[in-house]
């Protein structure tokens, strides 16, 4: 067996692992990177990238079908589902070199395409190689969780890991799960000409602002998605092309394809964590505020750390590790400034507390300001007026923002900067937005915070009258 000693061993070549490995190597550390599957991890190959590429094709089809509102004759698009999937594959292939083994070997990193397993506190075996490392970073990510529904083991089903390989358009796609993945894929497929039914045991987008989630669900229903909330799958049966799902509402859903989008589970089974003295649970590896495990030489980042499961969180965690593991500087991960987005139409983006969370935490100290898209000139000009922004403010500082509407995932970036730096609402009013832009809704929301303080304030009116009386 070959033996390697290294400064840093990174397990997992997804977003977080690649960022740690590249940063550490370029700063002079000796790095070994393990990856048992595809370079780039879930986001590049099965998640963010292919889903957004599919959504883009679906959006084009929807524009063609709804062009009448713009004075252009609408047409029913002829969807070549295989060609759509070919484009998805091309998008992945275009981005893949950035995450390739060759690129990271160019940084001086030793890349081993093997599965890693602990054999000691700071030692792992990968294939025919044993690696001893000063520090180890676990970035193994997560995979689709498959609920134990009776009959599911006997029928063909899709997950996000297999959906993008499907070449024939589903006639009727049944989706179990009404979270971001389920709703994004539901809208994309109904726009591509499929019949779609979504079964959700609770309310859709349960972690989001209720009003915002309701607007998304209402829009999807208007487009033809059959969303069944508070509906659980009790039993599944059938065969390829003829599947059925029995529900707690006594309704039997029949379809041609089944997509499981019922959450994620961490990839930890093969790591042999107990051998390294690392605590874990069914939700992931237990870490402290600095992302350190119970083994002080081992860190865990991204999905496998059991917290927020987003690609950008894994990238953020990578920066924490660089400061802590490489430079021995104090660094703690927090979540209050982390945005998230659901890329339906309308998009739904959130940062910090929702209204319910803010009121629960701060009571009467919370003010909620809102501005609707239909008051934005760019939204009116482009015919995209459905949606609003809601900002939760405490003592002049925003503690959360919810945006549901066009480009919400882009507009939330401004609020991410505001919350990350503890800025006040007054900083937003000082900003000048180019006209006309969707981004103006942020400044208008800030203006709505100050409007009653200026225009409904008798002291202000008294001062203005007094000043005017003194003017020549």
From TrEMBL:
Check the record and name the Pfam families matching this protein: Pyr_redox_2, Pyr_redox_dim
Give me the comment on cofactor binding: Binds 1 FAD per subunit.
Q: Which UniProt keywords apply?
A: Disulfide bond, FAD, Flavoprotein, NAD, NADP, Nucleotide-binding, Oxidoreductase, Redox-active center
Q: Which residues form the signal peptide?
A: none
InterPro entries listed in its UniProt record: FAD/NAD-bd_sf, FAD/NAD-binding_dom, FAD/NAD-linked_Rdtase_dimer_sf, Pyr_nuc-diS_OxRdtase, Pyr_nucl-diS_OxRdtase_dimer, Pyr_OxRdtase_I_AS
Q: List the disulfide bonds.
A: 43-48
Q: Name one GO molecular function term.
A: flavin adenine dinucleotide binding
Entry protein name: Putative membrane protein
Lineage of source species? Bacteria, Pseudomonadati, Pseudomonadota, Alphaproteobacteria, Rhodobacterales
């Amino acid at each position: 067996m070959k033996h390697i000693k290294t400064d840093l061993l990174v397990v997992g070549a997804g977003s977080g692992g690649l960022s740690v490995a590249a940063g550490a190597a370029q700063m002079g550390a000796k790095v070994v990177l393990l990856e048992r599957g595809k370079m780039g991890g879930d986001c590049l190959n099965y998640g963010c990238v292919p889903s957004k590429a599919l959504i883009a094709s679906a959006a084009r089809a929807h524009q063609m079908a709804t062009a009448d509102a713009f004075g252009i004759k609408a047409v029913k698009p002829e969807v070549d589902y295989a060609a759509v999937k070919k484009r998805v594959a091309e998008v992945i292939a275009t981005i893949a070199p950035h995450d390739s083994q060759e690129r990271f070997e160019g940084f001086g990193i030793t890349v081993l395409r093997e599965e890693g397993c602990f054999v000691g506190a700071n030692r792992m075996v990968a294939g025919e190689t044993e690696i001893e490392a000063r520090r180890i970073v676990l970035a193994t990510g997560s995979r689709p969780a498959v609920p134990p529904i009776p009959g599911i083991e006997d029928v063909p089903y899709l997950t996000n890991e297999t959906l993008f390989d499907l070449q024939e358009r589903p006639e009727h796609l049944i989706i179990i799960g009404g979270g971001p993945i389920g709703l994004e894929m539901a809208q994309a497929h109904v726009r591509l000409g499929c019949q779609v039914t979504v079964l959700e045991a609770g309310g859709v987008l349960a972690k989001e602002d209720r009003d915002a989630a309701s607007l998304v669900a209402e829009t999807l229903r208007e487009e033809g998605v059959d969303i069944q909330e508070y509906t659980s799958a009790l039993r599944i049966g059938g065969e390829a092309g003829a599947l059925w799902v029995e529900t707690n509402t006594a309704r039997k859903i029949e379809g041609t394809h089944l997509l499981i989008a019922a959450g994620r589970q961490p990839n930890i089974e093969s790591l042999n964590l107990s051998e390294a003295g690392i605590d874990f649970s069914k939700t992931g590896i237990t870490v402290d505020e600095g992302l350190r495990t119970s083994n002080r030489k081992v860190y865990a980042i991204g999905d496998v750390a059991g917290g927020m499961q987003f690609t950008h969180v894994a990238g953020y965690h990578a920066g924490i590790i660089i400061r802590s593991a490489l430079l021995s500087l104090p660094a703690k991960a927090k979540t209050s400034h982390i945005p998230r987005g659901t890329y339906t139409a309308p998009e739904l983006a959130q940062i910090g507390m929702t209204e319910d969370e803010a009121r629960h935490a701060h009571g009467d100290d919370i003010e909620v300001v809102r501005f609707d898209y239909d008051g934005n000139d760019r939204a009116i000009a482009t015919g995209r007026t459905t949606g609003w922004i809601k900002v939760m403010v405490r003592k002049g500082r925003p503690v959360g923002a919810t945006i549901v509407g066009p480009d919400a995932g882009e507009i939330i970036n401004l609020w991410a900067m505001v919350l990350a730096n503890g800025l006040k609402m007054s900083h937003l009013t000082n900003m000048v937005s180019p006209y006309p832009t969707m981004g103006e809704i942020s400044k208008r929301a800030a203006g709505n915070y100050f409007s009653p303080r200026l225009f409904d304030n008798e002291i202000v009116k008294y001062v203005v009258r007094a000043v005017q009386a003194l003017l020549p």
